[in-house]
């Protein structure tokens, strides 16, 4: 065995002054040699070639033995040593400053060594066998330190003590006073305790100036040879040429004790040289004081009485060259189990020390006297002294290999830190246990002066909790500091139980920096100790109507503060106090439930708090809303919801939230002793202060809103915590997350961020209501959409692929077995591996059950209803009538593809079907091929595809058209069969209505098999912009590509209000209605062309600033079949049924093309206008008759003697030109001009008064009107109101009933 030994010897001698920049214990005076293994060592590998002292003398000793000593990097307490084996020593020559006569001069020798306890040997010497100045050595048997001082022929010069140097470090100090008696001059101490003298020859006068100073041996005879070679390790040797004062000795010993893990003041055994035996020494646990190099006490032994066992230290002392950032006890007799190491950033301040000692109790567990929420604790407890300067954070390692603690128990042990031995309000820190090394590690621990720590097994409570604060002294302390941050977000759930407190009540925050609190009935944001934002809580449910849960949040960025209540932005303050960063200083860190400001005197919060989060960034509104009603978790480095497994994202910027920006996160799901586990990566676990176990309550906040029993949505008993939630108050927050675990029904519309429906449970939407999902739907049960209720999922809403559930969606079709409906399914086959699956007719139901099928023309009347498979078809990339593809009940119909069926012949005009299956959602792509190629000739080049609305909600036809530009012709064709009871094609009474972005046109009677019509517009329904659930429709494919349906097209529109129209048998209440539509404003003129034989044509002209006079996709619709007598527009040689133009202006002219067989009479009338002001004139100009017809007030009847196409006769115009109408006068003698200097209108040559003057701008808007103006006044100038620069049309209505118009310019 080796023994660690710290030896100090002080002798009275003559003074020699020596100063150096760094000195042991900052004691420079008289320093002659300072050898330390961590400096001045010259190596070849691990061989020590030489060892240079670090005093001002800079003496180098060269290896002089038969071999070199070895360098051991980790020798004592993580510091290096020089290892000697009896064959090595180092020769420092004969420096005069070390030629000390111990009978006349003072001398101090201090050494830290480890003897192997077998052979002993010399640490340092000057002399030989017969005569020597000084020698520090160990006998092979007595195991005590021996000093030989001034040996000569007549003087033995030997002194040895009684403290047994066994297996651990000792500090021996010999002090010789200036007394004449040489036996009394040397007083010995071991570790600061007076050592009784066993052998004392006194101090002799022997000196040998010519003998070398050796380290590791002494000279044999004269200055030759060597003897008493050392066996062991030498860490440090210090030599002064004077005796040191007691304080100086203590400073040096403290430096060495800290560096080498030695306990000052502790001795374990006495050595009896007579019997060569040792006996134990009682030690009470009171160590000596430890001192800094400035003489300041850094560990007070008496004050820390009982905690002086295995004292270890860490510290920085620049004057001593000390930087010890890792330490453990060097004792092996009373060994300890702890190693302490400074973390990165620790001990950056000079004179910073952390000293720790324990109470001497065994390293075993006890269940007696444990603090709150603790199963067992160590009997051994440590005490901390932090001195002079802040030391920083520590890592603590406990070696449990010598204890009886099992691996299972060890892995559950926490580090407990408290201000008293009872461990009241302890802070506990979970660690990590390595079962292979038996090492238990705790990181980032802040140990403060006077604290105690130990190991204990805390009670671990797992679940979903909230904490009840008593409003007196309950608080959660954290180590989070917000100072200096440029941006931040803080948030939590809160339920206030006392709304009568007049003082400002803190909720969460850092005093003087940033926080949320309540002042009276106002929720406030506190910034730099000032209230900068607020919300009156009596309006929200947390004030005078307390006992309800609410989410609160605040952000700071760029000097701006925002406050949120239940996810809604309720207040914002711009450039608050001119700050762009949070305050730089605070007396405390972030806390929960305590005071966050000093305004009006602070108070603690009374009520419950849950789910506390702090981010080092300012979250956007959407990001906050996405996480209000759910906990969060790390998903590949991004913050994700734990209920909705999607990354939190601001979709306006596409920015996610880095998990690293989460500074602190307390879910309160795990309470470990007094520790609230931090869910962020920063390990800032919270500590419960003064909070009793009974204050830990079941989670009450809605994360998410969850049902617990069957019932109505608006019944509080339906919900898990309904009396404390706002879920029954409709409408809910748009960003709410709802979990349906029971059978729930509602009669209202709902919009939610997330919806989860459990297996075998049903959410029933009664009436006609919208169920809107904006982010996530997990459907394992059933959503029953009654009547015209619809499920709308927005563009970022996902249906979980693993959803095993279904929806039920009803839609009515024709009951007649002779009449077709075009259908499309809003659902697909149920599975848990894919969405937007195929549909087949065998899935179709009605109220009585699954639909039945026969293959005959006609069907029997049954319940459930029966359909004929003979009339079931789809049409995919078809050209001709023969491209209709028959389907069977088992045929899988791709999503978004339409199909046909006839009715079941049940009573009534309609029959209700039920679509049951997995709802379609999101992007749906259908590959299409333009089979016919270039052109749009029926049966030749016109390719059609039967599509259909694939969603359980209406879709916006305009958006569908826009999304499929370049693939379709931009027109939707809707089949209507309004009458007839025959299966014979030529007897069908039906046809296709047209719909595009400009207009909607009723159907014409279908004729033949090629898409012709007979010119009779008999359709009873006018399409609307919105296509209802289940509606199939035709569209023309103009290029190979992909048809796209997506959630942006989805919208809630009601058939009962005429907002969408399902094309089945006419419902009189909805006949010819367009409903209410939210669309881009298109000015519309609908003309009706009627032939005397009853054939008619509806022609639509549309105008806007979005369209041009050239072809506009989605706004123009070509005419498929020209009748012998017809009226159309023409563009690029093709006829159009719907044509769009740029905005209406007085000068705009629209050419109409008449087709005539020359034998009929005709009528043109205007049957409808939309979004055109009543004062905008609309004329039909007949160039052949040279007349203008005011279509607002008259129809125009005419005949045509020309057979064929007439393209130069008719125009639609918006002002009358110079041509005479039946009411005009000759304007040859009339002069009209506008004097823009005086803003007066002059008209000369009228010879009569004027009934009305109208001023119309180029947008067709009449901007000014004047009436009853005399001839004299208008000749001398009519003062007009101010006009903007531009062209205007002046219209005069004269007393004679004639009219006159002229265009003028205003500059």
From TrEMBL:
Gene Ontology MF terms in the entry: hydrolase activity, hydrolyzing O-glycosyl compounds
Coiled-coil positions: none
Gene3D superfamilies named in the record: 2.60.120.200
Signal sequence range: 1-21
Record's protein name: LamG-like jellyroll fold domain-containing protein
GO biological process: carbohydrate metabolic process
Pfam families for the chain: DUF8202, Laminin_G_3
Domain LamG-like jellyroll fold span(s) in chain numbering: 486-622
Taxonomic superkingdom: Bacteria
Record key words, sorted: Disulfide bond, Signal
